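From the pipeline queue, job 12 of 40. The input is one protein chain; the requested action is below.

Action: predict structure.
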Amino acid sequence: MDADWPGHPPDYSKPPRGELTVAQVAAMIDHSLLRPELTLDDVRLGCEIAAAHEVMSVCCKPADVVHASRVLAETHVLVGTVVGFPHGSSTTETKVFEARDALDSGARELDMVINIGRLRGGDHAYVAADIHAIVEVAATAGALVKVIFENAYLTDEEKVAACHLTEDAGADFVKTSTGFAASGATMEDLLLMRRSVGPAMQVKAAGGVRTLDTMLAMVAIGVSRFGATATVAMLADANERAARGELRVPPVEAVAVEAIAVEAVGADAHQY
């Protein structure tokens, strides 16, 4: 997915094909530390896991950003956090304050929740301004913005509208879910989101991505980042397959979309 010539933006609509390295798989994972019951010791352990496996980032609760930043200071793992989480219903001013505080504390990726009710009510101008306000704040620190839709509550038309609003507002990712709704990422939603944004936009799957097979099937259709708590198991599987020469992205035509729909989050909800 690298640029073909200098200065050309990456085309994320064209996923990698064939064999992958374990490092490439790890670089697509945001190790999630968002469960409300996690202690600072739990966060430290999660950060150590992320560093040991060289994943792209951890995504932690706002109050834990300073702690995570200290633990990961000598590593390449980025610290991410959430804004307006999990319902997206904070005022824009509150979200802006959260974003600034997170950046000042060391975060370099912000996963913000869209104002779901305003989107469903058709107030697109409000939604666009809400996203753009966070994008502007993030830009001051060179941080990425991922916009969480919470697809469980949206129609396909609303998902497409959210994609267009997110892209127009200048965010970097569209993202499926928080992990707190009744369901998480599905192949159908991810295909719809990939088709509804341009090639420079990335798609993040979150909510129930628990196996390497599911992750690789989603890579095949153009997903480039994954929120996960099953990081250790997924990368152990990746290492085993790589040792056998079997770590590869399946051909997109071999991906059975209906069969790969991620299981409902349900009682085991917090699988971000």
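Job complete. The chain has one domain: 19-260.
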